[in-house]
């Protein structure tokens, strides 16, 4: 009789320990999942990131992206991702995610490369003298990533008169409908202002 009671108590304790252990595992999994979700949300709110090492970049970037950004290469005109892209949105640094150019400042230069009249923020890019290939040019680079983006020329349209001739391989396009989702919600106002202006012009014509 006593042996039976001891066995029952032992089994009862084992069951409780098992349930407690399972509960700890479940709660731990939930907390871990929540932490991961919060981390991803934080990354979306702040999409810019540090510059990876060269070894990491060689793994992350395509051959063309690495050649352009790290070796000052030039992609083939008319055979690149964004030369003929007319969708509204912004173009960010392929390495750091820093916003560089807007579709609002993009124009068809006829050169076969994405061309812009100005960057979104002048402090996000740097200019450098380039005397390669026997030419005198002004190179434009991503300030944070120190990536080669392209060159600046003085044959652009008004109001700046400049043409930022940029390689698609140095950029990543974020369409306007995904700006908030990707952590660039603050740039939605650029396009909302344009829509409002367009609406006012339409009303004026009536």
Fold topology:
Layout: H1 2-45, H2 54-60, H3 63-71, E1 89-93, E2 99-102, E3 106-107, E4 115-116, E5 125-130, E6 137-142, E7 148-153, E8 163-166, E9 171-175, H4 188-205
Antiparallel strand pairs: 1-2, 1-9, 3-4, 4-8, 5-6, 6-7, 7-8
Features:
206 residues; alpha+beta; six-stranded antiparallel sheet; three-stranded antiparallel sheet; disordered C terminus
Describe this entry's structure for a reader.
This protein is of the alpha+beta class. It contains 4 helices and 9 strands. The model is unreliable at about 35-45 and about 200-205 (pLDDT under 50).
* Range of helix content: 25-40%
Number of strands: 9
The SSE string, one letter per element, is HHHEEEEEEEEEH
Write out the strand line-up for the largest beta sheet, numbering strands in chain order.
3-4-8-7-6-5
Largest sheet: 6 strands, antiparallel
What is the overall silhouette?
Answer: elongated
The average pLDDT score comes to 84
Distinct helical segment count: 4
Give the helix/strand class. Answer: alpha+beta
Radius of gyration from the alpha-carbon trace, in angstroms: 27 Å
In the predicted model, the low-confidence regions spanning at least 5 consecutive residues are: 37-43, 199-206
């Amino acid at each position: 009789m006593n042996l039976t009671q001891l066995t029952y108590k032992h089994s009862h304790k084992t069951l409780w320990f098992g349930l407690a252990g399972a509960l700890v595992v479940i709660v731990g999994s939930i907390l871990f999942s929540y932490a991961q979700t919060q981390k991803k949300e934080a990354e979306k709110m702040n999409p810019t990131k540090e510059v990876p090492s060269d070894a990491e970049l060689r793994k992350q970037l395509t051959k063309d992206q690495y050649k352009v950004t790290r070796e000052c290469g030039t992609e083939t005109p008319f055979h690149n991702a964004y030369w003929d892209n007319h969708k509204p949105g912004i173009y960010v640094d392929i390495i750091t995610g820093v916003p560089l150019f807007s579709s609002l400042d993009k124009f068809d230069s006829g050169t076969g490369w994405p061309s812009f009249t100005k960057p979104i923020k002048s402090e996000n890019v740097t200019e450098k003298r380039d005397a390669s290939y026997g030419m005198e040019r002004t190179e434009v680079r991503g300030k944070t990533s120190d990536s080669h983006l392209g060159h600046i020329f003085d044959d652009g349209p008004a109001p700046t008169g400049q043409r930022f001739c940029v390689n698609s391989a140095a950029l990543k396009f974020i369409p306007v409908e995904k700006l908030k989702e990707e952590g660039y919600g603050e740039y939605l106002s650029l396009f909302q202002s344009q829509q409002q202006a367009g609406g006012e012009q339409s009303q004026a014509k009536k």
